[in-house]
Amino acid sequence: MLSIVQQDHLTVKSELKLLNRVQQWFEQFCLQHLSKLDWSEGQLHRLNLALAEGFTNAVRHAHHTLPPETTIDIDVYLWIDRLEIRIWDYGKPFNPDAITEPEPGTLQVGGYGWFLLRRLVDQVVYERGADGRNCLLIVKYGLQKQQ
């Protein structure tokens, strides 16, 4: 049974201006812990972009009708074989399977984030928690798993 190597937690308000703080917190975590497991710089950039997409979606969509003081919780878990990011919001649940992927070669405003997110990482799961919050789980496996 694998155990968690490291974990961290951040709570921020629903404000897009806090994205830089969220990304700096995550980068610091990565610098401290992921280098020990031979994660590549490319993997870290993809994870940071996935985190940014998940956070901005929570602010723009899940919390768009809620006060900016409404918090978003972010957990990061480093396992020996993967990194997990969990983004918790208080918005209404949505069905990601109901989103249609934009046609290649077409341009539209919005609608690309969910599909970008799924291409950046190995697993994306969206579910409603028992506490009434939504959880976006983002998983990226380490190099040893990908080989």
From TrEMBL:
UniProt keyword annotation of Transferase present: yes
Keywords recorded for this protein, A-Z: ATP-binding, Kinase, Nucleotide-binding, Serine/threonine-protein kinase, Transferase
Pfam families, per database record: HATPase_c_2
InterPro entries referenced in this protein's UniProt entry, alphabetically: Anti-sigma-factor_SerPK, HATPase_C_sf, HATPase_dom
Domain Histidine kinase/HSP90-like ATPase: 16-139
One term of GO molecular function: ATP binding
Name under which the protein is recorded: ATP-binding protein
Organism: Fischerella thermalis CCMEE 5318
